[in-house]
Design a protein that fits this description.
Number of strands: 18
Order of helices and strands: HHEEEEHEEEEEEEEEHEEEEE
Largest sheet: 5 strands, antiparallel
Strand content: 35-45%
Shape: elongated
Strand order of the largest sheet: 3-4-18-6-9
Helix content: 10-25%
Length: about 300
């Protein structure tokens, strides 16, 4: 703060001209300064915490809208644990995952708007209820967000939400703004197995590969184990939507696209009776990457003390 309070001791300091001595009398200067501080308090922008002056919440990182209202913009990230959990602080809890903490018993939060960024990883969450809302305490402030539009999407999503267009929205003093809805289910880990061909097909025919209980009849030619492995991969690429395949020399590595344990894979020679291979299954062996949610939220604090 640059302006010092004028006192009897400093009132003549640095006065070099008659104009300088006649700008304003100290009595009126001090009254004006006090009035300005009451209407729009000055705050150190480097202060990390909220401070209080004369019973009023001061804006640290916020904008003073009026003597009793401060507007803020915050960024909050919700983890995968919060998205699928039901404990306090999780989306599935009745009080939701906190986006804005309680400002205290003398204040009420007003939700203004939010832009939500869902960062998809490698598998979609499931089991939601299309009922995710931003709420004040336990009172919904927004319309429900469909799962496919945000947390159950199979890809990145961005949505904006605004307050409900209601005649009035009940406001609760000293509570949080939070994101609440039916807890989602993690997709689980992906089954992975390797098929190492130990004997090449020498006459040509078909072999049967069973993936999660579904038999796939694959044509093999009289060739090396390496080329037979490539024929199996080519079949999966062209005909199987539930798994993907890669090949390294004589080994086909096959990964499920749906999480969770599955029926063990098997490989048998049928008319391609000279081929042989060993299947090694790792049930739920590949960890999935979990999506997270970033929320850019705008809100206001209103003091209830006037």
């Amino acid at each position: 703060m640059n302006a010092p309070r004028i006192t009897q001791q400093n009132q003549n300091a640095d006065i070099r001209t008659s104009e300088g001595a006649a700008i304003v009398k100290g009595h009126y200067y001090n009254l004006l300064r006090d009035d300005v501080a009451t209407i729009e308090p000055l705050v150190d922008s480097n202060t990390a915490s909220v401070s209080v002056l004369e019973g009023k919440l001061l804006p640290v990182g916020g904008q003073q809208v009026s003597a009793n209202v401060v507007e803020y913009n915050d960024v909050v990230t919700l983890t995968a644990t919060q998205i699928v959990g039901t404990a306090a602080g999780d989306v599935g809890h009745a009080s939701g995952a906190t986006l804005v903490a309680s400002p205290g018993s003398d204040y009420v939060l007003e939700f203004v708007s939010a832009v939500m960024f869902y960062d998809y990883a490698t598998a979609a969450y499931t089991g939601g209820g299309d009922d995710t809302v931003i709420q004040l305490g336990t009172v919904a402030q927004t319309a429900a967000i469909a799962g496919a539009d945000l947390l159950e999407a199979a890809g990145d999503k961005i949505v904006m939400v605004t307050p409900l267009a209601a005649v009035d929205l009940p406001m609760t003093v000293g509570t949080t703004l939070n994101l609440q809805g039916t807890a989602l289910t993690q997709p689980g880990e992906f089954e992975e197995f390797t098929l190492q061909l130990t004997v090449a097909e020498d006459t040509g025919g078909t072999a049967t590969l069973s993936l999660n209980g579904v038999d796939h009849v694959i044509t093999l030619t009289a060739d090396t184990v390496g080329n037979n492995a490539l024929e199996i991969k080519a079949y999966i690429d062209a005909n199987v939507t539930t798994h993907t395949a890669t090949v390294l020399t004589d080994t086909v590595t096959i990964t499920a696209l749906v999480g969770g344990n599955q029926t063990n894979a098997t490989y048998t020679a049928t008319t391609a009776n000279s081929t042989a291979g060993t299947v090694t299954v790792t049930q739920a062996g590949v960890a999935f990457a979990e999506g997270v949610l970033r929320v850019h939220i705008k809100y206001r604090t209103h003091t209830t003390n006037f």
